[in-house]
TrEMBL record:
It comes from the Bacteria. This is NADP-dependent succinic semialdehyde dehydrogenase. Keywords: NADP, Oxidoreductase. It comes from Amycolatopsis carbonis. InterPro entries: Ald_DH/histidinol_DH, Ald_DH_C, Ald_DH_N, Aldehyde_DH_dom, ALDH_GabD1-like, GABD/Sad-like. Residues 3-455 form the Aldehyde dehydrogenase domain. The lineage of its organism: Bacteria, Bacillati, Actinomycetota, Actinomycetes, Pseudonocardiales. GO terms for molecular function: aldehyde dehydrogenase [NAD(P)+] activity; succinate-semialdehyde dehydrogenase (NAD+) activity.
């Protein structure tokens, strides 16, 4: 894929960029490694001051940054601005809490191991490569960059090829925030250059958010090199509705959970599993709300769903829906590509899905909801867990016993009861099964890129 800004609302190429040469990439890695030798010795207070200054700039420039994000990947302007502000919030969170999260962990009684002093100390790993996706072009990066920098690491960013302006902005804003050259660099490179970067001895670790094939590739290379990785891959999150649920709130939230970011979110609810006692009523409320959403220009304040980010992305969504319909599935709303420019696809609800259909097992990365009818809690859990993914999950019930069953038995990295899955700086974020491993955010996220060194003093 060419490195270019292509407006998904029009299909027009706005700007193209030249890929770095292999020699230029090696030089950038050298700059990062050299900078780490000094940056790792800065204090938490010094790093926090830099991160707060960078957050100040991002907040000040949020409107301009939002327009850039909307132009590059099509999210609505309101959601783009919210993402910019959330990214600044995440930076401040780690600036304020990193020292606490990475404090020494002394053994209360070191004499039990024959020492006068014994503890665990968190220390930075070095140069960390981040391979990041286009769907949240600032927030995904900040989930890695803020904790990594506060831990004393330095970062290299290989961003998605369709958001180069966002990628370059991130390097620029860190520099203007006061971080010295080499602390955070953007590498405008294609995916073919990722392997030599990972195999460079000066790169200590990697993190990737993206597709399962991309995660497999990075994990395999880093496994061969014995380097630490964190992977956040796809999701096919269940959204279970039981008879005791508040159906109006559940249906309203379901629409947002499915269509957030134009339906292009790993933690978007994708499979709506509804108890038969409330299935018809929930389906009616849900479909009415999905059908009422305004699809159009993401710069228009009235638009609720913008275009999909890439032409291929829309083709993939269409293929899954069309295959299901040809095999007997029923479309309750949407399901047809609109005429005109841009890569738009309407909010769609599809039901009568069987296990033989690809849509039953594959992630649909667009505003398409799969609707299932179940007879009891056990069947709901069985269908919810009948996926190779395990990122987020949602369940709606007021029954205390059902709540505990969902918490214990939903096979996912996150369970949200009577609400939609959201990433918060304060809570760990990640998945199980083929949704990846490791955790971002909270204290766990910053410790992923540290060596927990055991210290024993006789």
């Amino acid at each position: 894929m060419a490195i270019a800004t292509i407006n998904p609302a029009t299909g027009e190429t706005v700007k193209t960029f030249t890929e770095l040469t292999e020699a230029e990439v090696r030089d950038r890695i050298g700059i990062a490694h050299d900078r780490w030798q000094t940056y790792r010795r800065t204090t938490f207070a010094e790093r926090a001051a830099l991160l707060h200054a960078t957050a100040d700039l991002l907040e000040k420039e949020a409107d301009d940054v939002a327009r850039m994000m909307t132009t590059e990947m099509g999210k609505t302007l309101a959601s783009a601005r919210a993402e910019a502000l959330k990214s600044a919030k995440g930076m401040r969170y780690y600036a304020d809490h990193a020292e606490e999260f990475l404090a020494d962990e002394p053994l209360p009684d070191p004499s039990v191991v024959g020492a006068s002093r014994a503890l665990g100390r968190y220390q930075p790993l070095g140069v960390v490569l981040a391979v990041m996706p286009w769907n949240f072009p600032l927030w995904q990066v900040m989930r890695f960059a803020a904790p990594a920098l506060m831990a004393g690491n330095v970062g290299l960013l290989k961003h998605a090829s369709n958001v180069p302006q966002c990628a370059l902005y991130l390097e620029d804003v860190f520099r203007r925030g006061g971080f010295e050259e080499g602390c955070f660099q953007t590498l405008l490179v294609s995916s073919r250059q990722v392997e030599p970067i990972l195999r460079d001895a000066r790169v200590a670790a990697a993190t990737l958010t993206g597709s399962e094939p991309a995660g497999r590739s990075v994990a395999a290379i880093c496994g061969d090199e014995v380097k630490h990785t964190v992977l956040e891959l796809g999701g096919s999150d269940p959204f279970v509705v039981m008879p005791s649920a508040d159906l109006d709130r559940a249906a309203e939230t379901a629409v947002t959970a499915r269509t957030q970011n134009n339906g292009q979110s790993c933690i978007a609810a994708k499979r709506f599993i509804v108890h038969t006692d409330v299935y018809d009523e929930f389906a009616r409320k849900f479909v009415e709300r999905m059908r009422a959403l305004t699809v159009g220009d993401p710069f228009d304040d009235n638009t609720k769903v913008g275009p999909l980010a890439t032409e291929q992305g829309r083709a993939d969504v269409e293929e899954l829906v069309d295959e299901a319909v040809s095999a007997g599935a029923t479309v309750l709303c949407g399901g047809q590509r609109p005429d005109g420019r841009g890569w738009f696809y309407p909010p769609t609800v599809i039901t009568d899905i069987t296990r033989e259909m690809r849509i039953f097992t594959e992630e649909v990365f667009g505003p398409v909801a799969s609707l299932y009818r179940v007879t009891d809690l056990d069947e709901a859990l069985e269908i919810a867990n009948a996926t190779s993914f395990g990122l987020g999950s949602n369940a709606w019930t007021e029954d205390a016993e059902e709540i505990e069953r969902f918490i214990d038995d939903l096979d996912a990295g996150q369970v949200f009861i009577n609400g939609m899955t959201v990433s918060y700086p304060e809570l760990p974020f990640g998945g199980v099964k083929r949704s990846g491993y490791g955790r971002e955010l909270s204290s766990h996220g910053i410790r992923e890129f540290c060596n927990l060194k055991t210290v024993w003093v006789g």
